[in-house]
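Human: I would love a firmer grasp of how sequence relates to backbone shape in proteins. Could you go through the record with me and say what the backbone is doing? Here is the record:
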Amino acid sequence: MPDTSSQPRRPRSGSRRDEAARLAVLHAADDLLDEHGFGGLTVEAIARRAGVAKQTIYRWWPSKVEILLDTLIADSEKSLPVPTERPTAETVRGYLRGFARFLTRDPAGKVLLALLAEAQHHPATAKSFHERYLGPRRDQERAMLAHAIDAGELSPGLGPDAALDALVGPIVYRALTGASIPDDLVDTLFEDLLGPRAN
C-alpha cells in the first residue's frame, strides 16, 4: 500500500488509510453482499476482493457491519439525498418514489435491507445502525416534512414521526418480501397520509 502518513485520521479508529484502498473495500463489500448475502459475507472475502490485508481492514473497521454502514451512508448521500431547500409537496413525493427505487434497484438498497434484517437479531448491530444511519436520516426526513408543512405544502393528519412510519413501513415491507413498489402505491400513501395542498 502507498504511504498513508499524510492522510487524515479516521474518527472511530484513529488509523490512517489510503483513500483508494478504502473505496476498494467499500465496493468489494457491496458486490459480495449482492453475490452471497449477509451470511456469506466475510472480512476475509472482502479483503481478497479489495486486494488489501485482512489486518488492514480490522485496523479501519471493527466488523463487516461497520463496513456496510460506511457503504450505505456514502451511497445514500449520493443516490438518495434528503431534500433540504424549501421542500414542496412534489419534492417530498419525489423523495418517497426515489426511496422505493433505492430499495428495489440500487445495490445500496440491498445493504439497507440486509442491515435491517440483521438488526432484528443482534442488539449491537441495531445500536450502531440506529446511531450512524437510521437516526440521522430520520432527523433529516423529519426536517423535510416540517419545512413542507410550515410552507403550507402538506397537511398530515399524523405527527411527523408517525407519518414517516406510515409512509415508509409499507415500502420497506414490500422490498423485504421482494414485491414491486409501483409509483401509484407510493402516490396513494403520500396523498392519504400527507394531504398535499391542491394546486
Remarks:
- Residues 6 and 95 are 39 Å apart (CA to CA).
- The two ends are 58 Å apart (CA to CA).
- The longest helix spans residues 123-150.
- Confidence is low (pLDDT under 50) at residues 1-15.
